[in-house]
Design a protein that fits this description.
Elements: E1 5-11, E2 14-20, H1 26-33, E3 52-55, E4 58-61, E5 74-76, H2 89-96, H3 106-119, H4 125-131, H5 142-152, E6 173-177
Parallel strand pairs: 1-5, 2-6
Antiparallel strand pairs: 1-2, 3-4, 3-5
Helix pairs in contact: 2-5
The protein binds FE2/S2 (inorganic) cluster (2 copies).
Length: 184
């Protein structure tokens, strides 16, 4: 008995089976075990929102979720938004409106903003600012971020993600033990 726990989850439409330490956080599973480093760690204390992903279609701060709690779920990270060369409408809007400076907060901002538009497709500026309150930008570029979300809202699919789940049957499965690097 090595103390590891089996976890099966799908990430961006691909199923992964891993064995993880019970204390492993979802954000570290994504970054360190699956190599999905678009999800950032800004605080590790639920304060900054840089680690935001979608869990079964809902935005969550992945530093607040244990990897074992994600067993059986579908996770979407910022890497899962684009379709081939085609950016997600929210990514396009951040690009067009220069909704970033250093870019560290950007993946979390985008994932939260997509969830915001899913729940409220036509938000006011005030509602956008309220919806992004859990995401901090240390470059303080909030003006362009809010403008990007407002512009994205003009697109009919800006509140949608490509793989909201549930896990597709028969999807390719990658098996690995946490700590052994990126799996196949
Ligand atoms: Fe998760 Fe800051 S790293 S909220
Ligand atoms: Fe630098 Fe937001 S763009 S932290």
């Amino acid at each position: 008995m090595n103390g590891r726990v089996p976890v099966r989850l799908s990430v961006n439409g691909r199923v992964h089976e891993l064995e993880v330490e019970p204390r492993l956080l979802l954000v570290h599973l994504l970054r360190d075990e699956l190599g999905l480093t678009g999800t950032h760690v800004g605080c590790d204390t639920t304060s900054c929102g840089a680690c935001t992903v979608h869990l079964d279609g809902e935005a969550v701060k992945s530093c607040t979720v244990l990897a074992v709690q994600a067993d059986g779920t579908h996770v979407t990270t910022v890497e899962g938004l684009a379709q081939g060369d085609e950016l997600h409408p929210m990514q396009e809007a951040f690009w067009e409106d220069h909704g970033l400076q250093c870019g560290y907060c950007t993946p979390g901002m985008i994932m939260t903003a997509v969830d915001l538009l899913k729940r409220n497709p036509n938000p006011t500026e005030e509602e956008i600012r309220h919806g992004l309150e859990g995401n901090l930008c240390r470059c303080t570029g909030y003006h362009n971020i809010v403008r990007a979300v407002a512009d994205a809202a003009k697109h009919p699919h800006a509140g949608q993600i490509p793989h909201p789940g549930p896990t597709p049957e028969g999807a390719a499965v990658g098996r690995m033990v946490a700590g052994e690097g990126v799996g196949a």
